Recover the amino acids of this structure.
């Protein structure tokens, strides 16, 4: 105590209390979480992306990890079949076989892109699923290549072609999916964070594959094939769930058929309420991956382009003459719509 004039002042001395260990651990975990969120998720998440973004990315991460671990197994099988580890094997021969295998794969992907490249934007979900399934086929062929004997190079080249097609198709569809997710003009940010997620998955797969997966599987053929089969099943499931949750906003032929059928059913009597259109999320739950393929096999095709129906101006005139007496509601005869036959259809 201390006297200050007529007032007496008292002081209390207390020991310094360090912060609790729980609070330190909690703040550290929160800092790590925020750093991971800033590195892996777009700025402004979740308001800057579509509602299904996180679910799709979780399943995409699972399938990417499965692909990386299976690539370790298939690459080991290819290297072993190429003679790596054998004293009598020629390193130059193995290198040439590897380069030729990759070359055939690149040529196959270029040919595939020239044939079906225009359909990637129309059926994004289906082509994305196709990319991962063809990757499964390619990795399986790489695993079977050592058993092919004299046909090793052919089987390995086919496997490389399938994996190259996967990379090309996945890259083409990724652009449309990334554009779908970006809500705030943040296409570059969403694309960059997707690349960061792939890098993180690759690093984790590298550590798990080197220090846990490879020693656990070992050189046993039954263990290798069991691990490969389980990872493939998980890969297919993750892709099915991830692609299925995408609620795309544009209509292709398959989604247009589903929306039209639902609209017609809701507008049919005895319902007096005005029909309501399906939401994109509800429409995505009705989609089936094989729907566009089945639609292409069924006819007739509505909205077909004129060059697909007529190869020349004479074909256009023949169609006009064939339907000259037909009348549609609100229109005159077909022959009144075009009195003269076009001289040139294609410029």
């Amino acid at each position: 105590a201390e006297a200050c004039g007529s007032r007496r002042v008292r002081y209390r001395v207390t020991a310094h209390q360090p912060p609790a260990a729980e609070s330190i651990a909690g703040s550290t975990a929160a800092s790590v979480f925020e750093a991971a969120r800033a590195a892996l998720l777009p700025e402004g998440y979740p308001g800057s992306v579509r509602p299904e973004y996180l679910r799709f990315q979780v399943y995409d991460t699972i399938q990417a990890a499965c692909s990386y671990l299976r690539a370790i197994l298939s690459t080991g099988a290819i290297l072993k079949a190429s003679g790596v580890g054998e004293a009598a094997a020629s390193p130059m021969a193995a290198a040439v076989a590897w380069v030729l295998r990759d070359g055939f794969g690149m040529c196959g992907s270029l040919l595939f892109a020239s044939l079906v490249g225009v359909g990637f934007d129309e059926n994004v979900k289906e082509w994305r699923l196709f990319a991962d399934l063809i990757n499964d086929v390619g990795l399986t062929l790489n695993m079977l290549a050592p058993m092919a004997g004299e046909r090793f190079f052919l089987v390995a080249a086919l496997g490389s072609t399938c994996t190259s097609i996967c990379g090309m198709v996945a890259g083409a569809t990724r652009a449309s999916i990334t554009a779908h997710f970006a809500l705030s003009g943040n296409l570059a940010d969403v694309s960059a964070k997707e690349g960061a997620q792939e890098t993180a998955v690759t690093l984790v797969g590298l550590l798990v594959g080197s220090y846990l997966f490879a020693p656990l599987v070992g050189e046993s053929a039954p263990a290798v094939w069991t691990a490969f089969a389980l990872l493939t099943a998980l890969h297919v499931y993750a892709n099915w769930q991830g692609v299925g949750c995408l609620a795309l906003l544009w209509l292709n032929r398959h989604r247009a058929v589903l929306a039209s059928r639902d609209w017609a059913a809701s507008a049919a009597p005895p319902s007096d309420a005005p029909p309501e259109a399906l939401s994109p999320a509800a429409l995505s739950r009705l989609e089936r991956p094989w729907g566009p393929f089945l639609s292409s096999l069924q006819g007739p095709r509505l909205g077909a382009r004129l060059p697909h129906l007529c190869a020349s101006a004479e074909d256009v005139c023949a169609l006009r003459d064939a339907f000259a007496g037909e009348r549609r509601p609100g229109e005159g005869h077909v022959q009144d719509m075009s009195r003269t036959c076009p001289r040139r259809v294609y410029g």
